[in-house]
Amino acid sequence: MVLDYSKWDNLDSGSDDEPKLQPKKKIATKDVSGVPAPVAPAGKNLIPPLDPGRVALLAKHGILITQLEPMGARVTGIDFKKGGEPPAECLEAMQQEMAVRGFIVFADQGVLSGDEQVFASKLWGGRKMHSTHGVHPKSPNRHIFRLSNDRTVGTNGVGPQWHNDGSFVEGTFSHVGYHIVRVPENGGDTHFCHQGAAFDMLPPDKQEWWQRLVSVNSSSGVCHPVVHKHPISDRSSVWLHLGMTGAVLEVTYKDDERRLR
Q1: How far is CA 60 from CA 50, 55, 64, in A?
Q2: Which residues of 114-143 are buried (b: 16+ CB within 10 A; e: fewer)?
Q3: What is the pLDDT of residues 142-154, one digit of tens each?
């Protein structure tokens, strides 16, 4: 498996001289089209559908966005290899859908160069790269965190737990992009969770409690609220790194004073 990814504020990509680790095999892909969405609490829609107005706006510019289930969306009609930037209103519409649906898959891109992936990354969030990772010798760009199950090709053993990237810095990443150069022949799946839906699935008493919790990063000591308001959707969302949480603090209020315990 070779996976390049980058942080947007701020995608990671393979190079044209990608080594042939094994003969290519036909990959049996998982069909998740029939996977039902989680059951929402009464009166709530855990993961809202695509906005018809944004779908129509994108279609006017030749961009097709379709809904994936149980979360996410798929976009065609954009070619990051050409380097042209989509209109601002299209970028805004897609960024809104990223926030609401959880992620977007930009299909039919082929293998992007390092510069092409960085270009795609800088279309979102703060429109600049925020790179804090090591640079593998095979990485096609210093902003790309190149991952592989072969140490000579990329870094391995990364992110085995549920996590948000950037928990060790105060200014966390607005987006994270993945460019899968080669899919694994056996295992190696990457799983995604909608963190707004995760919060909504908590019982009311747990929601109230979790909103008082603060996680402490085990390597830097930086603190982040376990529940935050998403800056685009304004939705209460869980924010955790299960592999780098050294402690969890609870904020309590007494006599108009805020205390930690």
Answers
A1: 16, 9, 9
A2: bebbbbbbbbbbeeebbbebeebebbbbeb
A3: 999 998 888 999 9
DSSP 3-state assignment of 208?
A: helix
d(CA 156, CA 153): 9
Cβ of 65: how many Cβ atoms within 10 Å?
Answer: 22
For the entire predicted model, the pTM comes to: 0.80
Q: Quick one: average pLDDT of 182-192?
A: 80
Contact 235, 196 (CB under 8 A): yes
Whether the Cβ atoms of residue 143 and residue 10 lie closer than 8 Å to each other: yes
Q: Where are the alpha helices (DSSP H) in 72-169?
A: 88-101, 114-121
Distance of CA 144 to the CA centre of its chain: 15
Distances (CA, A) of 40 to 160, 198, 228: 28, 10, 20
H or E element in which residue 32 lies:
none
CA distance linking residue 189 with residue 202, whole number of Å: 26
Q: Residue 137 belongs to what H/E stretch?
A: none
Average pLDDT across the chain, whole number: 83
Contact 86, 55 (CB under 8 A): no
Please give the torsion angle defined by the CA atoms of residues 114, 117, 122 and 125, in that order, rounded to the nearest 10 degrees.
-130
